[in-house]
Specification:
Length: 504
Amino acid sequence: MSLVSNLFLLFVLVLAVVYYTVPSRFQWVVLLVFSYLYYISGNAKYLVYIVSSTVVIYLAGFLIGRMKENGAPIERQRMVLIAGLVINLGLLCVVKYLGPVVDFLNHTFKVQIPGMAILMPLGISFYTFQSCGYLIDVYWGKVKAEKNPAYFALFVSFFPQLLQGPIGKYERLGGQFREPHKFDWLRIRNGVERILWGYCKKMILADWAGVFADTIWADLDRFNGVAFFALIFYGIQLYADFSGAMDVVIGVASLFGITLDENFRRPYLATSVADFWKRWHITLGDWMMSYVFYPISLSKWMMKFSKWCRNVFGKKYGRVVPIALADLLVFLLVGIWHGASWKYVVYGLLNGGIIAFSELMVYNYRDWKKKLHITGKEGWFHAFAVIRTFIIINLRWFFDRSDTLRQAFYMIKQAFTHFDPSQLLQINAGRGGTAFVPQALAIIFIGSALMVIAGIRQENGHDLQEEVNSLPVPVTFLCCMGMLVLIGVFGCTGTPRGFIYAQF
């Protein structure tokens, strides 16, 4: 059930009516039932995966909680933790990576290992990470083990975040399901405004940018003169698509009194690649930092490696080398999380390599800035850092969007050796065909400009939703109606596109 379908809107409306009609003590039951109905609507066979993940992690967390109450040795708790993680992550690996691994072995070693037709369940990467994070937090003692399996099932399956995140933590999300939620007009209005804003980003900006990006990537020989534009279009499409989905998801959740974590904070205004990853897919970055980076950095072998580095490289550089290595490992996992392909391995290592290199060069950068009398607070330097980071970030999209490494390198070559903007006029822009290209490009340009302006205002401390809410109610209503009109008039008329991150 797509987030942009009429069926989804009807589903949410029916749920809202039932949710605020039943006694408050049963609201969480309604959410659980509708969450499973939503998941089953994609394919009833998906149910076995999410139920298996829920049962395994619930039982493991329950056992660890009981062990803590009874004072059991930490080693026994760790055994349960490892077993739960291995089963849960193992299921994810089998479903997501077994087929590509078998294909790779058959191709590389010229063997005929039989493959398996495995159904790829919706959102498995997101709910797997969320449930594993809960289990680790129980082991660390950050949260108490949930004793009610139905409550835990709702935490894992809450339908708005099921397919694309954000990846929630139990300490922030779990308790919200127990609380009674009365109908609040202001909260409902905020949710509807957020949903409409997300639909505008997705159905107007992302989908129109996708028309050009997908067409160019689908026929690289014909459109080799606009490879650079394809990169820009994809950067716009990806951000508007994913952040638009998060607006819809967070807006829908707020209709029921549930506050989800923000997943974007103006990433294209980042001043470094590290800063970008603190703004883009924030909950994935937070998950990786909490459950991968810090455990690696504080592990015994890393402590020994850090001590060796200080002896070899000196105290100053010996401190940053282990951090750089941990960054590299984390982003290798981020790349693999995106998919079982060499292009994602390169994508992850490229991100991690840039951040690791920046860590290693931090003292050099500081010395160079001092010699050039740059404090880092100058307006021109901030603008330079944003533009530099924007260029680096967009160049990485070649590896994210291309089907193979070979295609990615081919696109890079074409972007820097061929330039023929007139090829854009040969692209069929929705139902209007090639004749509508100028209008479609104008929609993309104006939409992107508005999004940049809104982002800059937010970066400077303006709360845009509060500003809208401060307007008279009739004006706010007209703004909402205006967004609906914009979608109807300027929405993409090309082939409907699903959300990009729903495939993970």
